[in-house]
Amino acid sequence: MKKPKMPAAKAVPETPGESSTALSKSVGKGDATYELPWVEKYRPKFLDDVVGNTETIERLKIIARDGNMPHVIISGMPGIGKTTSVLCLARQLLGGDEKLYKEAVLELNASDERGIDVVRQRIKGFAQKKVNLPLGRHKLVILDEADSMTSGAQQALRRTMEIYSNTTRFAFACNQSNKIIEPLQSRCAILRYAKLTDAQVVKRLLQIIAEEKVEYSDDGLAALVFSAEGDMRQAINNLQSTWAGFGFVSGDNVFKVVDSPHPIKVQAMLKACYEGNVDAALDSLRELWDLGYSSHDIISTMFRVTKTIPTLSESAKLDFIKEIGFTHMKILEGVQTLLQLSGCVVRLCKLNMDPKKFQTK
């Protein structure tokens, strides 16, 4: 008598690079929670929530309220809310209807293919598509990081923008507006975003800290602001990384995550330079170099710290910044040696030393 055949077990597809044991464990859990990056979790949904650049945001609010949006180019540093404000504008123009938003908004960024073919086919096809929109509203094409588009692709957009301007408007977000060709610039209203102030960054970080119940110290908050340099995205990412890695946001922990020279050490070196103490200044520089920091990291931190030292007079700061600037330029040209940095430190020491010491007898 033949034994009845057992039904074959369904094979569980394995993810490349993941063992079947690990996969079965993750499948077995069922209730595993995956946390969003805080940058996405706390990304503003409405223009009222966007931090900084108040005047420009007010102009966008008027457009969102009245409709009839012009073609726009938004330029500025990374992490100051360019893409976020365009997405908020699109959402508010369409009345917050997610289904309509998916139909009437085409978003392309640097990770998408944006050559001439895409402009001719995908963007033109979207512009020709019929969508039922409220009165005075238009379809929107958002081209993020538009300064990385090829010149040919930008040229191909010129006629498309004109032909379909009755139904479709374009919004470009870029770091440098001069990388956008002149014919496109002349068709658009250009909005320039300024760097966020420290107070604006701190206010937003404190909101996130309160929501996530993060433990922090004041020097940790100051370190986040110092390392971000007005870039909100970087400040929030550094906050999340420090909290996840150490469970407490202190100054030392932040600089371990950011992996840049500690400003206190750099400040001690610059004070030694101001006092004309060459040996102490060179010892501090050697200590930073031995910790593995690149010459670019050290010179950038020297520049940022010089601006914030309260004991330096304005003229001394200008003299220091001039010397640091020349050295920075040489480092960017490729001369990234300890000797180059040592020369800079010694020249800084010489600024405040007695000129008689350098006279030949």
From TrEMBL:
Single GO MF descriptor: DNA binding
UniProt entry tagged with the keyword Nucleus: yes
SUPFAM superfamilies xrefs: P-loop containing nucleoside triphosphate hydrolases, post-AAA+ oligomerization domain-like
Keyword field contains Nucleotide-binding: yes
Localisation: Nucleus
Main location as per UniProt: nucleus
Domain AAA+ ATPase: start-end pairs: 68-206
Stretches with biased composition (Low complexity): 1-11
InterPro entries cross-referenced by the UniProt entry: AAA+_ATPase, ATPase_AAA_core, DNA_pol3_clamp-load_cplx_C, DNA_Rep/Repair_Clamp_Loader, P-loop_NTPase, Rep_factorC_C, RFC_lid
Recorded GO CC terms: Ctf18 RFC-like complex; DNA replication factor C complex; Elg1 RFC-like complex; Rad17 RFC-like complex
Organism superkingdom: Eukaryota
Positions of the UniProt region annotated as Disordered: 1-26
GO BP term, example: DNA repair
Pfam families: AAA (PF00004), Rep_fac_C (PF08542)
Keywords: ATP-binding, DNA replication, Hydrolase, Nucleotide-binding, Nucleus
PANTHER family referenced in this protein's UniProt entry, alphabetically: REPLICATION FACTOR C / DNA POLYMERASE III GAMMA-TAU SUBUNIT, REPLICATION FACTOR C SUBUNIT 2
Family that this chain belongs to: Belongs to the activator 1 small subunits family.
Protein name per Swiss-Prot or TrEMBL: P-loop containing nucleoside triphosphate hydrolase protein
Organism per entry: Podospora australis
